[in-house]
Amino acid sequence: MSTPPGVQPPSQVHAGPPSGFSDLAPLGQPPDAPAPARDPIRRARWMVVFVCLALLATNVWLIIDARAHAIAQARLASTNLARAVTERMEAAVSEADHILDGLVYELERTDLSATALEPMQPLLVNHVARTEQLKGLFVYDARGGWVATSVPQWDPGWSNADRAYFIHHRDNPSASTLISPPILSRSSGEWIVPVSRRLNGIDGEFAGVALATLSVPHLRSVLERFDVGEGAILLTAAGRMVARNPSIDADIGKPLPPSDVTTFLATHRSGTVDARSPLDGVVRLISFEHARNYPLQVTVAASKSQVLANWRINSALQTVWVAFLCLLLQRAGAYTRRTMEQRLRAEAGLRDARDALTQANEQLAALARIDDLTRLPNRRYFDRRFARVFRQAQRDGSPLAVVMVDVDDFKKYNDHYGHVEGDECLRRVAAALRATVQRPEDFVARYGGEEMVLLLPQTDQLGATMVAEAARTAVAAMDIPHAAVVAGKVTISLGVAAMVPGQQDSAPALLKAADAALYEAKRKGRNQVAVSG
Which residues are CB-neighbours of 523 under 8 A, at least 6 positions away? Predict the structure, then answer.
């Protein structure tokens, strides 16, 4: 190893300690005394070992924590999806039940003869035409004969007296709605889910059955609207499989194969279980939800392999990176031991590291001003900017406008689509607001929750209203679906306040006026701009 300039080679000082350690002897130590340089080097070596072990332990902890987080997120998403699909299916059955309720009310007050029921056929056809999940409506007399139906033509000799739902109503005086397992329709040849009610005569005797049939292909198409990747969504009625995404037609009408999972699904109203699917044998995160009022169950089964795919990749990369760091630390330690005589250079390196740390702290301070989700300036930074701009407007006697923005019915959006989609919605709204303001001095920030704010210097009330309307239009034009509201898409409400601030005016008063205008816009129906009076 070459000797740095200005450092005398060890061989010219004294003999004794190995080369490279002699210049570490304390000041005033006799030349032939042993140098205590090995203790710091040994401590440095053990420090490198300790740091490597700490890094490996931290890496293991982070991998375990990331796995638990990935599974928890998948469970939350599956649970929300199962709940949403269950509510949709329950609504479809409830609508058919409501139609049956009205039909039974009319039928029990009339004669069930073909002549008396002939005017009812257009009504049945109209109900089926207006209700997409309905396949057909039927009325059977006490012998099971067809007396009225939404089907254009049928054989007068057809009888449904052998159907399980007919036998149930014939032998059971209950007026409750019966949801039966899926069966093949005799009129159309398609799979259907029967929804039936008993018809009673004047004296309470069995008079027949009113039947609404739900189209299994339609129910399957509803499930197919949800992208589940390598997972699956399954709908069961009365303990039998009705529809599945991805579709397996051969399983329609069959019960779930007996297993611990099947038992768990049958004995709990809702929940999530990590188990091997009884249908395809794949290990899945299975979330399920039973309908409140009907024997319906929706099961969402996410592939555990798919759920953990990104975690495996990230964990492998992270482990490689930590191993590289440990190797780097070992190399650095060896290098440090060989170059310990270059203390002056090390001190210079420390000064460089200090400067780099200062720069990193400055960068962190800048990041602290940004909202992580929307990438807009945060409330704290807005407050400082607003106070400064307000004082400037007071000095210049120039107008200043504030526009408060609120995403309409955002809680309903989160409840319907989940928080992941809710975060994406906020990001898109923030991007639309950023694109709306054009001047460099205009400022957009996240105020809190789903609220955002526009700060518009040198802008009067008319100009601020135009900017607010442009922002409202831009968000509406994105057509972000919002099935939980009448508009069917995400909209925003905006409150505008502007003034030429005098010395007696205050910044909070301007914010308060904009906030009051925002609530006025929401009170008037949302998706509009209100201006402070």
Answer: none
